[in-house]
Amino acid sequence: MNPVTIRCVITDDEPLAAKGIMGYAERTGFLEVVAVCEDAVQLNTVLKQQPVDLLLLDIEMPYISGIEFLKNYPQPPKVIFTTAYERYAMQGFELDVLDYLLKPISFERFLKAANKAYDYFAAQQTSVSPYFFIRSDKKLEKVSYQDILFVEALENYVAVYTTDRKILTHATLKSVVEMLPAQQFIQPHKSYVVNIQHIGAIEGNILHVASFQVPISKYQKEEVLEKIVNNRLLRK
Q1: Helices (H), ranges, the chain
Q2: Over the stretch 50-100, which tens digit does the pLDDT of each residue have?
Q3: Which pLDDT band, with edges at 50, 70 and 90, does 1 fall under?
């Protein structure tokens, strides 16, 4: 297995705290700090500019808290909270964070959390496969990532549309998203996840995916266009 390098962003409105966390990260040898932000607004900009694996995220900050940012950002990177407040711990773990560090943070405790992140990403690196299984009608159906057109969240189910069938499964959209390779799929709307490879056209607030039309949320449109089109737009 190749060594794992984790691209991380530190977000903290206290400069001394951010500096200390950066020093800890550098000492691990596998955390690469690609940016340091003072608040979630700066973090939002950074995440749109470059790939990030891990957020070292404070909670109480100006404009928007770390928890509110995490709740509202689509498909965020993994998170380790770094905060002076114990009272947010339950909310943090409900958001599936890797760890919750209370300030003042010792290097020993930081390293334990960093190693947890390392183990998580190492497992992701070794377990990548071109397919996964979905439970539907008392059987497990094998689904290849490349065959998925899009996934739609229904009231109590998720519908997975592939090139040759529709599969209904009792699950949440979030649980399906966690199984999908992030570089291949995008979430244009809170109820849909789309395979970028199968997008045939973009028309207004609609993605044309095979014979289907998938809506783009007005809040997601800029990010969706940036990820889909990127530098592939032919100009005059």
Answers
A1: 15-28, 40-49, 66-72, 89-94, 107-126, 173-177, 221-229
A2: 889 999 999 999 999 999 999 999 889 999 999 999 898 888 878 889 999
A3: very low
- Residue 156: pLDDT over 50: yes
* Greatest C-alpha distance within the chain: 56
Cis status, amide bond into 215, omega within 30 of 0? no
Classify domain 6-126 by CATH number. 3.40.50.2300
Rg (CA), the chain: 19
What is the number of residues in the chain? 236
> CB-hemisphere CA count at 13 Å for 94?
7
Amino acid in the structure at residue 19: K
Q: How confident is the model at residue 231 (pLDDT cuts 50, 70, 90)?
A: very low
Which of 2.40.110.10, 3.40.50.170, 2.40.50.1020, 3.30.540.10 is the CATH number of 131-229?
2.40.50.1020
Rounded to 5 degrees, φ, ψ at 137 are 50, 50
Which run of H or of E encompasses 132? Answer: strand 131-136
Dist. CA 17–CA 82, nearest whole Å: 9
Identify the residue whose tokens are 């998580």: 120
Q: What is the mean pLDDT of residues 37-44?
A: 97
CA separation for the pair 133, 31 (Å, rounded): 32
Q: Which two tokens mark 28?
A: 């691990």
Percentage of the chain lying above the pLDDT 90 cut: 64
CA atoms of 58 and 66, how far apart (whole Å): 6
Domain residue ranges in the chain: 6-126, 131-229
